[in-house]
Amino acid sequence: MTSRNAAILAALLAAAAPAGAAKPDRSLDAALRAHVATLASDEYGGREPGTEGETLTLRYLAREWFGIGLVSGTNDPGNPWFAPVMLVERVPSRSFAAFHRNRRALALPAEGVLVLTSAPRQLVENAPLLFLGRVAGAVPERAELAGRIAVVLDRSAPGSETPDPTSRADRLIEAGAAAVLTVLDGERSLDEIAARRARAGYALAGDDLGGDLEAFVTPAYAAKLFGPDWAALVKSADAGLPHPRSLPLTATLEATTRETRIATHNLIGKLPGRDPPAGAVLLLAHWDHFGKCAEPPAEDLICNGAIDNASGLAVLTEAARILAKGKKLDRDVYFLATTGEELGLLGAYAFVENPPLPLESIVAAFNIDSPAIGPAGLPATIVGHGLTPLDDDIAKAAKTLKLRIVASPAAESFLRRQDGWALLQHDVPAVMVGSNYSDAARVERFMEQTYHRPTDEYAPTLDLSGAAEDVRLQVALVRWFAGTRTFSPRRLPSKN
Ligand SMILES: [Zn+2]
After folding, report:
1. Average pLDDT for residues 313-337, to the nearest whole number?
2. 148 Cα: distance to centroid of ligand 1 (angstroms)
3. What pTM was estimated for this model as a whole?
4. Distance from C-alpha of 95 to C-alpha of 181, rounded to nearest angstrom
């Protein structure tokens, strides 16, 4: 949102209906339907951060929340309602590699090698190469790796587990390697790696991106680079290299990325309680989606994100309306619509890195993501089950609605792919409770046909009965956890 848009919005907010003013008494289904139809309309362009779609989305939500009677929850008079979040988008730019053998520059072809980093620029000059062979488990000690470029073969040793190549490189760099050079003797090709990394990477501006620097070479390039030693090196790796071997080679590697900054916002509202020192409950749902996500000749180019996550915003907003109309709760309730979830939970990370309230005072956080996957009548699951002290009380709150909580391995597979995960990293007890993940076959169908595709769009046939049930569930959860008599937080054992 630009400051001009912010000014227009302020005027709109001032003109909006005050809290409690008579609203047409729509049924819950109709209210949810109106939110999803608007937020997932083509006019909103797929709600991409930093676009006109963001302005429209946040203006719509803020007007709704203001009309419901929420107040700004940013606790920042300079930025009411909209907490600024600065993102950076990076795409690989320069890739450079030069090698020396016994101080003599090697003449090598320009193709067959690719150097990558996720930082703005990373450079290693004249670093010695250390051959590690096929690294599966343990990595060498820091003293051995420090300042050197670790050379590994991509294919794992026969019979040994194939390590995740990303974590292998991360572990080597963490253990002190200046860079990792991978010889692609396995299934991955240089083109595949280039294509995968050509997609943009996103981060919060100011985040420490680490010093990752990775070079990839084809087997043909490796044969030229290592010369007469190459066959013997592969043989020793196949035999299970007893210890790392220093090579008479040094390398200069450099990679850069091109950076674009994206100014975006989290929307934060608050329903003040009677007893703010008793803490707060947080209800959150991400507002962002992918924007334009297909190219012509496809007819539908927009990922509208009706289920993911216009339906979550609809549930959040209608839960807020019911809570605001009811009797005043003990604890404050914060309502957060996050940006950048689809780019890596970045809005949620921005919230915990710059929170509007002390994070320790959040007694419970409930994320709402894609509630319209399932219809009414399914049992509920807890994404994050067993990771917070909330489970018993969640079951009690659900019982007030005669709703069952069931265990679900399918739900657990979403744990790290939802905003609650970012909060858990900062010790905020955060879960996602809903019925949307309890029917594994239905979730699988959604993932295969609709998830992150232009087909996730609104139609009057969209079943919102599950989302309506979810509204009642979120209201029951918030009332339970915002009541000082129903819930007193158990402090987690101190880590010190
Ligand atoms: Zn998504």
Report:
1. 98
2. 40
3. 0.81
4. 13
